[in-house]
């Protein structure tokens, strides 16, 4: 399995090596937050499209589930020695195409699962529960940007991305079927947040943190590990 994982990684990495324009495009799509705005923008659009409390509570439950999945994925990178991040592994012939700063990784030398994939695919699954067409479109977009592009850059193995796809799907799915949690949130909102101030504030804070890959969660885990 690892050999197949490695072959895909090296094929993608070497395919764009020596092509400056392609490297810039893949780097732009895979490393920077800008291309991920469509995903966050879609969720924001779905949030403000309707003031229905039950719908917004479904989104918030998905948000909480995604945060949990993200925290677990970052923790796994500290404690699970599945495989070293490709760019840090001197035993394989992977090229640091964008001169990525390896020093900023700190203790996170392991890359399984991809926390970036967990976050954005978690958001995609939230979108899918509200609007399937938008969900599928964003899934394809994330598969390209935080999936294939990050593998081509040597930041992750394909298996890191696959884990980042399936793990948040499971967590968001399970959370969505905990009906008492959603019902309790609906009742609490109706009783204490009639104007939606708390819900909107919580959602906006999540969007701001998500754009930067939750620096608060990652800083906390750095301290405790």
Short summary:
With 225 residues, the protein is an all-alpha fold. The chain has one domain (2-224). The protein has helices at residues 2-16, 20-31, 37-49, 53-79, 115-130, 132-152, 158-176, 179-192, 197-211, 215-224.
**Overall pLDDT score:** 87
Unreliably modeled segments: none
Assess the beta-strand content as a share of residues: under 5%
What's the gyration radius in Å? 18 Å
The backbone outline, from C-alpha atoms, is elongated
* Domain module count: 1
Largest sheet: none
Number of strands: 0
- Number of separate helices: 10
Order of SSEs: HHHHHHHHHH
* Helicity level: over 70%
* Cα distance spanning the termini: 29 Å
- Judged by helices, strands and strand pairing, the structural class is mainly alpha
Strand and helix map with partners:
Elements: H1 2-16, H2 20-31, H3 37-49, H4 53-79, H5 115-130, H6 132-152, H7 158-176, H8 179-192, H9 197-211, H10 215-224
Helix pairs in contact: 2-6, 3-5, 4-5, 4-7, 4-8, 4-9, 5-6, 5-7
């Amino acid at each position: 399995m690892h050999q197949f994982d490695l072959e895909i990684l090296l094929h993608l990495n070497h395919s764009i090596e020596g092509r400056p324009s392609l490297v810039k495009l893949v780097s732009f799509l895979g490393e920077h937050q800008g291309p991920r705005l469509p995903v966050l923008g879609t969720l924001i659009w779905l949030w403000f499209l309707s003031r229905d409390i039950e719908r917004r509570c479904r989104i918030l439950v998905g948000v909480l589930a995604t945060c949990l999945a993200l925290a677990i994925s970052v923790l796994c990178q500290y404690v699970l020695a599945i495989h070293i991040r490709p760019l840090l592994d001197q035993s394989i012939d992977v090229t640091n195409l964008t001169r990525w700063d390896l020093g900023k990784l700190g203790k996170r030398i392991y890359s399984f699962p991809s926390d970036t994939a967990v976050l954005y695919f978690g958001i995609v699954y939230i979108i899918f529960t509200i609007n399937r067409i938008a969900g599928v479109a964003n899934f394809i977009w994330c598969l390209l940007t935080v999936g294939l592009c990050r593998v081509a850059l040597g930041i992750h193995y394909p298996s890191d991305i696959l884990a980042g796809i399936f793990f948040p799907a499971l967590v968001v799915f399970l959370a969505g079927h905990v009906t008492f949690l959603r019902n309790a949130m609906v009742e609490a909102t109706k009783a204490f947040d009639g104007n939606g101030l708390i819900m909107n504030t919580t959602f906006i804070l999540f969007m701001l943190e998500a754009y930067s890959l939750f620096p608060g969660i990652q800083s906390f885990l750095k301290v405790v590990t």
